[in-house]
Amino acid sequence: MGYAKAMPVDTGRSALQIVSLVKANGELELSVASFAVPQPGPDEVLLRVEAAPINPSDLVLLLAGADATKLEASGTAERPLLTGKVPSTASLTLRLGHAVPVGNEGAGTVIEAGSSPAAQALVGKTVSVAPGSGMYAQYRVVRAEQCLPLNAGASAVDGASACINPLTALGFVETMRRERHTAIVNTAAASNLGQMLVRICLKDGIPLVNIVRSAEQVAKLREIGATHVCDSSAPTFLADLTEAIAATGATIAFDCLGGGKLGGQILSCMEAAINRKVTAYSRYGSATHKQLYIYGGLDTSPTEFVRNFGLAWSIGGWLVTPLLLTLEPARVAALKQRIATELTTTFASPHTQRVSLTEALQLKALHHYTKKATGAKYLITPNS
Amino acid sequence: MGYAKAMPVDTGRSALQIVSLVKANGELELSVASFAVPQPGPDEVLLRVEAAPINPSDLVLLLAGADATKLEASGTAERPLLTGKVPSTASLTLRLGHAVPVGNEGAGTVIEAGSSPAAQALVGKTVSVAPGSGMYAQYRVVRAEQCLPLNAGASAVDGASACINPLTALGFVETMRRERHTAIVNTAAASNLGQMLVRICLKDGIPLVNIVRSAEQVAKLREIGATHVCDSSAPTFLADLTEAIAATGATIAFDCLGGGKLGGQILSCMEAAINRKVTAYSRYGSATHKQLYIYGGLDTSPTEFVRNFGLAWSIGGWLVTPLLLTLEPARVAALKQRIATELTTTFASPHTQRVSLTEALQLKALHHYTKKATGAKYLITPNS
After folding, report:
1. Average pLDDT of the residues of chain B
2. In this complex, do B280 and A94 lie within 8 Å of one another by their Cβ atoms?
3. How far apart are CA B159 and CA B149, in angstroms?
4. Helix, strand or coil, per DSSP, at residue A157
5. How far apart are CA B378 and CA B368, in angstroms?
6. pLDDT digits (tens, 9 = 90+) for B137-167
């Protein structure tokens, strides 16, 4: 058939990966463990992992709620061991006693492939992938269909974060269109994801309201061309937000804080903006549907809202993976193609620090990358 | 054409109705005012209103948030006047300065009809209707299509509450089916609406979890055949609720409290019940969608929830009117037919007190029917 043949790999060999273990008594153990590299199945490929980012969602799996500042280090330089305590095992029942391989996404080179044409077509290519776990490893077997092949010349470092944030930002726009909204509100908008969304919306002509929490972040977003940027630390925040929503007509918002009052405030400001144009009183509020999606939990406090936005509203959890499963495969392929084409522009992900697998479990590094506010983005390079 | 002809009505005459006026300075005035009875249009009918209930949603329009215990009485026995103060006019802009006719629903006799066949067909019939306002009046013009004709022998008192609660309870079931759930959780389940839902679900074989707040209410619901009744005042409430949800498989809940923590607790218990059957850990929680609809605001405190139920969830406002607009007209007609057929059984609405228009604005009566906890259901009989 003329497919490129992969080099044979010694699948009897072992490799290293970062695992997170929660014991029944609530003890947490983070370590670098060896594992037997599996053989790819017919529709699978074997990746040599070259770069994998540390994102907030990775920390959920890694720390299982434990306080990173209270972990204790032992073990050796080659085999570090961090131990701690999780606050509750209630929602962890299904992972208790299992050493869970960590690492949502990353990029690397396909060094072996299963027999299917789709798998064989990837041999030798640099691909980005987000299998959801096990990317903090020297090798990882993934399904061929999960791979996002990078364009020639793009490195694994360029593509390390090419899946989750880019697909999430594009997913916001897909969700907006599907649910017939025409403009978006986004929170924590100075994040890497937020900046991607600014660039997508500028390119696609979608009005966007960015919520940030400092004057510095306002300046940062203005610099990349954002029009509406509201600073939640400003005394005029709610008035500013209402103005921006009125100017854009935004009726859908994506919130990665989750906790606190901000989500409800967005709905209240939407209602106030909508009611500027309503001429007849209704005790049930405006008939325009207002949607808030919570896709993160940067604020771990309870979510609280005052119901002053009528009855045409919804607050829901949002996750990119189930969304992609509901899109046509051709649409998903088009989104991935766009990411590959605009990898170093629209979807650029700067990483400020690189560490090996063992360095990632040094307390100093861990304290640095678990601090949410810093903006320091770590990249694990398992084979360097 | 052979349609029954209505008796001519002197439409130059005036009649009485209860109106609620909020002034720009926040002053509230409740009074019995005269108004010119309008002539029905081609698709309309003129009702002599014989019975109209006082429901919580009527109090929203009547009081506009004012404290009922602080109203002051003046005026005469024939023309009572109650005055008070609303806490805020912020969400009332569109009604400021307008004397709003009150009364969501009621029943009466069609004494005149427009020229359309649908309107003429109703002449002389006793009908129930929920136009959303103006039913605390001696006469009311409504659209023919809004009317629910009662069966022969049913009185206006029987049919006074035949629209809102019955259609709401049936609407829960319609929503459950449309969104592919198979069992329901309902709060404040000892209410008249809650009891209707118990009877509907028993008849239709739908598993139902009832949440009440006292042992007396548990007994009340057991008496009419409810299987799963959870008492939120019991120390074992959350465990009881999780058990009942696990037993029924309920993944949709309707909450008329709105404020407080109960709604979020229901979602948490749903997640716990679902996770009993899940075998693989996911940091994103179960993949089963959990839905909470808020359709009332008995608890006016902020809504608060802890997000420990994954990302497959939604909380939204719910209202029966928009739902009915999305159903096929034949389906709506079938629901109304069912209400007429089961008016004094499934959909029985006991009313304990009857008052005239002027009596409804006596302070003693008002203090009684504005107390949420009593269960005393008032009926206004404007023409008796």
Report:
1. 93
2. yes
3. 9
4. helix
5. 9
6. 999 999 999 999 999 999 999 999 999 999 9
> Could you tell me if A16 and A382 are in contact, meaning their C-beta atoms sit under 8 angstroms apart?
yes
Q: d(Cα A380, Cα A80) in Å, to the nearest integer?
A: 15
What are A330-354's pLDDT values in tens digits? Answer: 999 999 999 999 999 999 998 879 9
Kindly state the tokens that stand for A188. 């924590």
pLDDT of residue A373: 59
**Residues of B in Cβ contact (< 8 Å) with A308:** 91
Decide if A284 and B315 are in contact by the 8 Å CB cutoff: no
pLDDT tens for A128-150 read 999 999 999 999 999 999 999 99
Query: What is the pTM for the complete model shown?
Result: 0.87
Task: Extract the tokens encoding A65.
Answer: 């709620």
- The rounded distance, in Å, linking the Cα atoms of B51 and B45 is 17
Say how many CA atoms lie within 13 Å of A160 toward its Cβ. Answer: 23
Q: In angstroms, rounded to a whole number, what is the distance separating the alpha carbons of residues B361 and B94? A: 24
Question: Rounded to the nearest 5 degrees, what angle is found at the Cα of A377, between the Cα atoms of A375 and A378?
Answer: 150
The pLDDT of residue B5 is 46
- How far B301 CA lies from chain A's nearest CA (Å)? 7
At A6 the pLDDT is 47
Residues 6+ apart with CB under 8 A from B342: none
Strand partners, B315: A315, B292
Q: Which residue has the tokens 């299509």?
A: B145
- Distance set, CA A380 to CA A285, B14, B28, B156, B348 (Å): 50, 82, 65, 75, 67
A313 — contact with chain B (CB < 8 Å)? yes
Q: Please count the other Cβ atoms lying within 10 Å of the Cβ belonging to residue A342.
A: 16
Q: pLDDT at position A281, please?
A: 76
ipTM confidence = 0.83
A12-38 core/surface letters (b: 16 or more CB in 10 A; e: else): eeebbbbbbbbeeebebbbbbbebebe
Q: Taking 80 as the threshold, does the pLDDT of residue B9 lie above it?
A: no
